[in-house]
């Protein structure tokens, strides 16, 4: 599906990292941008960069972990002809499950699962009516594994992975293409937030967010259903995760 056929894209989590790069790269391709995030200052930086590329932009400030904000955003944007949805907003938490705060875990589920589902549901209906559209859901290779200490996060991304494949199968007859992007370790602020002040060692090799996005958009135009950027990430998700028994994989990840 050619990106040049789209007029308006909505990108969540657009203030930094992968979401910001999605907004900018889509703007480079002449697509108007609705950029959604909760950090006003950083979101304005994204908007400014998109404006410099000559497209129309809408800045929408919202914390999508609050269901009321998701509902309000959908209502506010209902008249806009958005034909490409990029569900990127999300976060992870690292720690032993019983020691993590339940309200933080519930907030993660609200954002990573419920907000994404609501936006897919609303905009997919609009796209089906027009017989045209695209949805890119950002998951993680953690969603292809069972990752101890990233317990709930990996579970939420498994949901995104499975939902995306199901939606692809259901919506393709309406000329709506759905793709799941499952990045591996990426050079963003994800780990700083996930570890919340705990000491951690960054991965030696992390992909840059722009590299992830550029490759993902090429995959989308080739009608890929699931795209995992990076050779090592592909190997882990497609071979190691499928060949090793679940118990052995979980033990390996616990000690690595």
UniProtKB/TrEMBL annotation:
Keyword Signal: no
Entry keywords, A to Z: Oxidoreductase
InterPro entries for the chain: NAD(P)-bd_dom_sf, SDR_fam
Gene Ontology terms for molecular function: oxidoreductase activity
Xref: Pfam families: adh_short
PANTHER family to which the protein is assigned, alphabetical: NADP-DEPENDENT 3-HYDROXY ACID DEHYDROGENASE YDFG, VERY-LONG-CHAIN 3-OXOOACYL-COA REDUCTASE
Family of the protein in this entry: Belongs to the short-chain dehydrogenases/reductases (SDR) family.
UniProt protein name: Short-chain dehydrogenase/reductase SDR
């Amino acid at each position: 599906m050619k990106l040049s056929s789209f007029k308006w894209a909505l990108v969540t989590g657009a203030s930094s990292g992968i979401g910001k790069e999605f907004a900018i790269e889509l703007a480079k391709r002449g697509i108007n941008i609705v950029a959604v995030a909760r950090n006003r200052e950083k979101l304005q930086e994204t908007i400014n960069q998109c404006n410099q590329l000559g497209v129309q932009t809408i800045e929408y400030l919202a914390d999508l972990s609050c269901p009321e904000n998701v509902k309000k955003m959908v209502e506010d944007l209902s008249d806009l002809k958005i034909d490409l949805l990029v569900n990127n907003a999300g976060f992870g938490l690292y720690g032993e499950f019983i020691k993590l705060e339940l309200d933080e875990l519930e907030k993660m589920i609200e954002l990573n699962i419920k907000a994404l589902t609501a936006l897919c549901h609303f905009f997919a209906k609009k796209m089906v009516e027009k017989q045209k559209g695209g949805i890119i859901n950002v998951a993680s290779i953690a969603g292809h594994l069972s990752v101890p200490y990233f317990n709930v996060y990996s579970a939420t991304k498994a949901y995104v992975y499975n939902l995306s494949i199901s939606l692809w199968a259901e919506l393709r007859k309406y000329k709506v293409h759905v793709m799941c992007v499952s990045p591996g370790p990426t050079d963003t602020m994800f780990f700083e937030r996930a570890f919340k002040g705990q000491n951690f060692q960054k991965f030696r090799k992390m992909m840059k967010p722009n590299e992830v996005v550029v490759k993902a958009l090429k995959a989308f135009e080739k009608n890929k259903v699931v795209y995992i950027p990076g050779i090592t990430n592909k190997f882990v998700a497609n071979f190691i995760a499928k060949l090793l028994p679940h118990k052995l994989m979980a033990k390996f990840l616990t000690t690595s």
